[in-house]
Amino acid sequence: MSPPREGANTSHVRSLRAALVRVWSPKGLAEHVAREWPGHATGEAAVLYWRVRLLTLALVWIGIAIVGASLIAWFAGYRTILAAVAFDGGGSILMATIAVLHAFRLWMLFKIGGWSRRKGGSVRRAEQPLKFWLWAAASSGILAALVCLAGLVLWTLISALSGRSV
């Protein structure tokens, strides 16, 4: 077998770097969104959403790792307060990041004034106002439930750290 070529390796790095630059910078993605959804600086809003999504992705993986490690420790027989605190800490990180991401989705729905279908085509608020407001109300309810769950898990973590049981 021949060793891998340097050119193939650098082309993957270049394409990954170009994709990250396109997502992180306002150019490229912002222009694409602005073409589909003209007006109200929607391109910059989409870039902000994807930046938040990239940052929360890292926090979600950290939360999953903490919850997974605490579950492994719990099932291995280390049933201590530290395992419970780690589980609550990871759970609160997960719930808070999901709530933040959902809040940005709801913000994008109102900022753009519509949504895109999976198979292409955009739907404006003016075209289907009932569906828009149902979607916004459902998203708001989900966001409220996520915030309440994140608060509950955080409250359990604080009470476990203070030594009181829930």
Write the layout of secondary structure elements.
Elements: H1 6-24, H2 29-36, H3 42-75, H4 81-112, E1 114-116, E2 122-124, H5 129-162
Antiparallel strand pairs: 1-2
Helix pairs in contact: 2-3, 3-4, 4-5
Q: What this model shows, in words?
A:
- The chain contains five helices and two strands.
- The chain is mainly α and 166 residues long.
- The chain has one domain.
- A two-stranded antiparallel sheet has the order 1-2.
- Strand 1 and strand 2 form a beta hairpin.
- The longest helix is centred in the middle third of the chain and has 34 residues, at 42-75.
- The termini are far apart.
Strand numbers in spatial order across the main sheet? 1-2
The average pLDDT score comes to: 77
Q: Give Rg in angstroms.
A: 21 Å
Helix content: over 70%
What would the keywords be for this entry?
mainly alpha; 2 strands; two-stranded antiparallel ribbon; 4% strand; flat; single chain
Summarize the structure.
This protein has 166 residues and is mainly α. The chain has helices at 6-24, 29-36, 42-75, 81-112, 129-162; strands at 114-116, 122-124. The mean pLDDT is 77.
